[in-house]
Amino acid sequence: MRNREMAGKIIIDTERCKGCGLCVIVCPKNSIVISRHSNKNGYFPAQVNNINCTGCAMCAIICPEAIIEVHRDNNIAAVESAKKDRPSLIEEKA
Ligand code: SF4
Ligand code: SF4
Q1: Is 79's C-beta closer than 6 angstroms to any atom of ligand 2?
Q2: Ligand 1 atom at minimum distance from 57 CA
Q3: What is the tens place of the pLDDT at every residue in 10-49?
Q4: Pick from 8, 14, 25, 43: most CB atoms within 10 A?
């Protein structure tokens, strides 16, 4: 079996999402859409399908709310945008 493209997974804190759509625009794999259902603040949040996600982290970097967490397979790394100033690279345990 040949190696597949690196897979990724993102987690969006949808209750804090403002529905700006920047992550949708920047995702090269069309892995994010805007939900039809509003969150508790009345915004239509980003929703992820994760099917084609490569873990490139572009969505986490552009998100003005810093609410997207990115995980990559092979336990290489996780990018967390919890900090407002810039995303930080942290090691992920196996
Ligand atoms: S990590 Fe990259 S491929 Fe995955 S959802 Fe975000 S922008 Fe798209
Ligand atoms: S960029 Fe952030 S705030 Fe904007 S829609 Fe995506 S997750 Fe929500």
Answers
A1: no
A2: 1
A3: 999 999 999 999 999 999 999 999 999 999 999 999 999 8
A4: 8
